[in-house]
Amino acid sequence: MPELAAAAVSGGADIVELGFPFSDPLADGPTIRRAAERALAQGMRTAACLECLRSTRARVDVPLVPMTYSALLEAYGWERFAEDAAGAGATSLIVADLPVDLRPELCRVQLVAPTSSDERIALAAEQTDGWLYLVTLTGTTGARSELSPELAPLVARARGLTEAPLYAGFGISTPAHAAAAAELADGVVVGSAALEAAREGTSGLERFVASLRAALN
Questions:
Q1: Does the pTM exceed 0.70?
Q2: For 7-59, what is each residue's pLDDT tens digit?
Q3: Cβ contacts of 1 within 8 Å, gap of 6 or more
Q4: How far is it, in rounded angstroms, from Cα 140 to Cα 109?
Q5: Which residues belong to the active site?
Q6: Which CATH number belongs to the domain containing residue 94 in this structure?
Q7: Total domain count for the chain?
Q8: Does residue 154 belong to any structural domain of this protein?
């Protein structure tokens, strides 16, 4: 993981999201699900993930954002996890299945979706840590053949409710997707396609991220 994170940064990534594996990742598509299953089968648990985060922080200086699910934090301890993650080098946190009105004391990046009401978007924007994560489609993560048509109206609604930076994710898998999304939002989040590229090792991931960066520039 630290080597892959360093490769992503070398390719031009501004932020690195680190997935902490969970046995029932409801928001994730098949690529990330399989990666989580492999990690868990090899004994990757929360403490080991935090050590990986610490090692990654020693390799890169961009923001690092663990992404996981509320059951993992419930088992580990909410305050304990927040403290240990920050101590290991996390800049923020994403909890994919934690509604905005629960655990407001937990500083994290909030997610909103096309199904979110304006009220929920406004509340998420008020409470989010730094930027607002726009889920571009209804469903799970995963590579898609085209950019979701739901992104443009979601961006328009969010722009009318907040001045927070808007980063679009879920289903963005090619440089063309990234360029199109960046015409609307302030940044893009790429997960499944990056994992697929990482199957070719650090050089494959670096090339893929560089292709995304070139499309954005």
A1: yes
A2: 999 999 999 999 887 766 565 667 666 766 676 577 778 998 999 999 999 99
A3: 18, 52, 55, 56
A4: 18
A5: 17, 28
A6: 3.20.20.70
A7: 1
A8: yes
